[in-house]
């Protein structure tokens, strides 16, 4: 057996790496994750905020397991985020431990002091073979997100029932690019979201979004073949008070994502979360010609957003627990 490095430049090797990762993810009833081409763009491109690469443990031509590594380059430069995936027939044979040791060695050489990763578990208990693996190797549980899903499309009648415009706010929508007149405020709202969202005890820094960083993220998303729908609420003074984003990729048309929903603190308590979500659903579904599953993740402590999701019809399918290991 040997450890191989995966950087995306050898497509055949990358496809084997991706195939194993995707197979493990698809063991879930509701798999979520990037497609092959989306992932390859991350591995082969130059990105200011993050470098992405991986490792594989192979025995001849057989791939036993992989490690996907995210190296933060702006914030969180003390962290390496790692995802391990082991082929079903090779679990409990030391493959995961071998990969973890190799990752830790790389992290130390790069001056990182923390490994961070997540594990999927039961929707009620949060426990799984992945959480047991993490705990046994010294990782500490730091945060929990509830994974909820919603089957689309919602009926026109249901959307009409949910639609509750809020007086005093204008609804504005866009697709792949934030309009120039809203770009600065949108970047500020994205930054505020990373400060506001519950992250438990994770040793992670909030992300600072600039207008340049927003444009870079938009360009990356387009290069990956992904798409997005954004709806914002603007008050009478021209302040961007709330936003929501949903999207997906042409490679996995039945797998969609509810990304951020954020309401500025001074505008909360006015049902703005629902006021931006429903128009965004309408925009998304106007181009949806097939059934799809919409995925979202929220901390259980984020009770207002969980309540909104339940009202929309989302149901829980798993917990995602975040773990950290000091090196």
TrEMBL record:
<protein>
    <submittedName>
        <fullName>GNAT family N-acetyltransferase</fullName>
    </submittedName>
</protein>
<dbReference type="InterPro" id="IPR000182">
    <property type="entry name" value="GNAT_dom"/>
</dbReference>
<dbReference type="Pfam" id="PF00583">
    <property type="entry name" value="Acetyltransf_1"/>
</dbReference>
<dbReference type="InterPro" id="IPR016181">
    <property type="entry name" value="Acyl_CoA_acyltransferase"/>
</dbReference>
<feature type="domain" description="N-acetyltransferase">
    <location>
        <begin position="4"/>
        <end position="188"/>
    </location>
</feature>
């Amino acid at each position: 057996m040997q450890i191989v490095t995966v950087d995306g430049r050898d497509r055949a090797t990358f496809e084997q790496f991706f195939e194993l990762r995707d197979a493990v993810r698809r063991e879930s009833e509701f798999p979520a994750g990037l497609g092959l081409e989306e992932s390859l763009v991350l591995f082969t491109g130059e990105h200011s905020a993050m470098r992405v690469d991986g490792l594989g443990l192979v025995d001849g031509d057989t791939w036993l397991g992989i490690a996907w590594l995210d190296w933060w380059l702006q914030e969180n430069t003390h962290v390496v985020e790692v995802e391990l995936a082991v082929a079903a027939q090779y679990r409990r044979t030391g493959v995961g431990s071998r990969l973890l040791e190799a990752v830790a060695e790389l992290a130390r050489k790069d001056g990182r002091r923390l490994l961070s990763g997540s594990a999927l578990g039961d929707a009620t208990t949060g426990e799984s073979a992945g959480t047991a693996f993490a705990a046994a190797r010294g990782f500490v549980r730091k945060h929990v997100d509830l994974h909820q899903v919603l089957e689309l499309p919602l009926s026109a009648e249901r959307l009409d029932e949910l639609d509750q415009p809020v007086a005093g706010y204008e609804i504005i929508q866009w697709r792949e690019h934030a309009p120039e007149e809203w770009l600065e405020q949108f970047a500020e709202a994205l930054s505020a979201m990373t400060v506001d969202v519950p992250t438990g005890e994770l040793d992670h820094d909030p992300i600072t979004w600039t207008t340049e960083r927003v444009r870079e993220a938009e360009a990356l998303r387009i290069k990956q073949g992904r798409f997005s729908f954004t709806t914002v609420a603007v008050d009478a003074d021209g302040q961007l008070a709330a936003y929501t984003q949903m999207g997906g990729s042409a490679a996995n048309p039945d797998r969609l994502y509810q990304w951020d929903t954020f309401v500025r603190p001074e505008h909360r308590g006015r049902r703005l979360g629902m006021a931006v979500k429903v128009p965004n659903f309408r925009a998304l579904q106007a181009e949806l010609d097939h059934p799809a599953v919409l995925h979202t993740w929220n901390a259980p402590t984020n009770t207002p957003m969980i309540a909104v999701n339940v009202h929309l019809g989302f149901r829980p399918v798993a917990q995602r627990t975040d773990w950290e290991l000091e090196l």
